[in-house]
């Protein structure tokens, strides 16, 4: 149980609602102050080129539900249908579930929730043979997959959504952190960490509570701000965060 534990969530609203609900059901006092906002991008010449040349790709790869929804919204705007021969790859089951909501089933789902493992498993799945992959993603997506995938896997990145700092946020949250009013602060993205530090202009606030990180890239960003005591979820999902919180309170 997490009775009376005070937890600050910093992820986007839609990605944090389910976790917030689960934490509250287990007795935690939860406050959500998003440090990122996510918006679809307007159509660009590169997006138009990718959409127009869909039949030249064998796979479409998704690493987040935002990539899925933004991509299909963009297809709707362009009035384009996906070729029936297209295959889909997903990093993680949640992204695959989002794909299902659009009527498609992932042909490949990585067993783990990170880019490095995806690159290894997908390369093996394709037998390291030449494969053309379209990758609808966000403006801040790291290049881990493209850098570590087999050289035979040809990835074309297509930016369909952008992650930006919040337009509005409750600045009093920083006073609460200074006053030690939170037991845990949860970060679910590197950009969330960066925006937190830049908006507060006070990196030492990261030492005012136990920091929970969703995965390696977020942990790395925390370390860049000298936060070396964060605890990382073993499974890089909201369920993983929930599990590590329970472990820390047993």
- How many DSSP helices? 10
CATH topology of the largest domain: Rossmann fold
Named at the architecture level, the CATH assignment of the largest domain is 3-Layer(aba) Sandwich
Q: Using DSSP, what is the number of strands? A: 11
SSE string, helix = H, strand = E? EHEEHEHEHEHEHEHEHEHEH
Low-confidence stretches: none
Main sheet strand line-up: 3-8-7-4-5-6
* Biggest sheet layout: 6 strands, mixed
Shape: elongated
So what's the CATH class of the largest domain? Alpha Beta
Structural class designation: alpha/beta
CA-based gyration radius: 19 Å
Total tally of structural domains:
2
Our estimate of the beta-strand percent is: 15-25%
How much helix, percentage-wise, in residues? 25-40%
In round numbers, the mean pLDDT is 93
Distance between the termini: 8 Å
Characterise this structure.
- By secondary structure, the chain is of the alpha/beta class.
- The protein has two domains: 6-36 and 167-248, Rossmann fold, CATH 3.40.50; 39-163, Rossmann fold.
- It has helices at residues 13-25, 45-52, 65-78, 93-100, 115-125, 144-148, 172-178, 190-200, 216-224, 238-248; strands spanning 6-9, 29-32, 37-40, 59-62, 87-91, 108-110, 131-138, 153-164, 184-187, 210-213, 231-232.
- A six-stranded mixed β-sheet has the order 3-8-7-4-5-6, sandwiched between helices. Strands 2-1-9-10-11 form a five-stranded parallel β-sheet, sandwiched between helices.
- Strand 7, helix 6 (144-148) and strand 8 (153-164) form a beta-alpha-beta unit.
- Helix 1 runs parallel beside helix 10.
- The radius of gyration is 19 Å and the shape is elongated.
